Amino acid sequence: MASSSKTEQKKMLILKSSEEEEFEIEESIAVQSGTIKNMVEDDFTLIPLPNVDTETLIKIIKYMKKHGEKTKSNEKDIEEFDKEFVKKSFTELKELVLAANYLHITSLIDLLCQAFADRIKNKSVKAIREIFGIPNDFTPEEEAEVYEQHKWAHEEGKEHIDHSAY
Amino acid sequence: MDRGKKSGLAARNNRIYLDFKDIIRETALPFLPAKSLAKFRAVCRDWRLQISTPFFAHQQTLSCRSTSGFFLQNRGESPFLISVDTNSCGVPDPSLRFLPEPVDIKSSSNGLLCCQGREGDKAYYICNPVTKQWKKLPKSNANHGSDPAIVLLFEPSLLNFVAEYKIICAFPSTDFGEATEFEIYSSREDSWEVAGEICFGARKVVPKSGVHVNGVVYWMTPTSVLAFDLTKERSQFFRWYYNYGILGAFDGKLCNVYATGGSIRLNILANTHTNTMQMGSQTSMWLEKKTVVLDSKIVGDGAMSCSILHVDNNIMVVHSGERTFSYDFKSRATKLLSGRAGINYRCFPYVNSLISL
User: Fold this and answer.
1) What pLDDT does A57 receive?
2) How distant is the Cα of A66 from the closest Cα of chain B, in angstroms?
3) Using an 8 Å Cβ cutoff, are A102 and A35 in contact?
4) CA A99 to CA B193: how far, in whole Å?
């Protein structure tokens, strides 16, 4: 039987990373993940996460713990935490957003996507294709047309456009 | 190792197994400002399609909320846009030549501009400067005067793809001497309506001073602040001790910002309930919140005498010695925005949103 939130003993879950490492976490905090919440409703207490490696899981648990203790008074504190949280390498953020999406933690997905948006907004079209491995599937005519239709977005500030892939 | 991918129809339809490219395309792109998005249509066909749908415009309107720049305009001249970051934020035609006549910008809100023509009927227009969509508003019932004191109110909403907005005008009453009346345009009704409320007292509203905070619209008069509560349709004057500077919204409260000596003071209105505000109590209603000193290395001698053009939670725009500067409250950095600006310029915060009219 699940214990009520009024009792001293909080219900704990175990999250298991793809590398088989286990982490104990309060259920009330873990259910910020929609995926975990579904499994809890199906009576799981050991949650295997074969899509999330240990390093990433540790960061995600840290995020959920911080956001699990959200009160009216610590909003600025959480804002600071979030700001620092996204100061990671592109690869780390990529692993995090894949995991956050798999775990369905909406606030974290949004936080990470905002961070990606901030990083890519100044990149050139070519750099975007390289970063995300997107092939150019336009015909030469189509490409010319799309540039022409939005010429203003490509011309101004040309000298500041960031062509680097990362 | 193939991350996050399982075979099987159920898995493919399940969003938790999206790959990185899909997550970026569906969830990160809406956070981008409109200029970056216009550029990224050229990345590939999927991105071009994603970015061009009305649903995407709706998502972007909800996700991309921060101030991207400021429209500045001197009366009689064309407006121009100063971007916070010219690469990612911008509009195809900052002088708004896509409108049917030359206009003066009167108010801005979350990506929409409210402008007024200079000739004939002096019609009002609503436009989104990045999509170049515009709409001419029906004629108002009342005479708003030669320099209408208006405020545009637009909040992106989860349920509406098309913008729902209001425009409030405080105008000198023609029926009653020395009184102010209010007329409201609602996009839902597509009509103007004069409110029943009449505010007596010989206080002329300063046209460019209007600000909206939490359902109340405030304007400056030479000796007081006029508040009009939109829900109750009730108005009230209350005194303030500095009759210069500007009004703004800071931390969800009305603020008054002015330059004095070499510094800039920001005071917030502590008492937010209009029905408990007393006419007699003056300075005790305002709390000193911040004192800012601009970086004299950037501003030069102008740090001693400047006028405030705009203030919000994140940023303050200041004019000094023919130049415009921004001050960021979080980073405390002073930055030169533009070398072209005069003291009579009006400043309108702008969000690079794809909102549909």
Assistant:
1) 97
2) 22
3) yes
4) 52
Rg, chain B, Cα only = 22
A13 vs B202: CA distance, rounded Å: 68
* Contact (Cβ atoms closer than 8 angstroms) between residue A18 and residue A53: yes
- φ/ψ of B108, rounded to 5, equals -135, 155
From chain B, the residues in CB contact with A134 under 8 A are 21, 43-44, 46-47
- The per-residue b/e assignment along A14-26, b for 16 or more CB within 10 angstroms, e otherwise, is ebbbbeeeebebe
Amino acid at B119: E
Nearest C-alpha neighbor of B254 from the set B151, B351, B180, B158 = B151
- Asked if B38 lies within 8 A of A153 by C-beta distance, the reply is yes
Question: What is this structure's pTM?
Answer: 0.88
A89, with CB counted inside 10 A (0-12, 13-18, 19+), is exposed
The letter for the amino acid at A165 is A
Q: What is the pLDDT of residues B92-112, one digit of tens each?
A: 999 999 999 999 999 999 999
Q: How is residue A76 written in tokens?
A: 């600025």
- Residues B331-334: contacts with CB under 8 Å, at least 24 apart: B333/B295, B334/B294, B334/B295, B334/B298, B334/B299
**β partners of residue B136:** B125
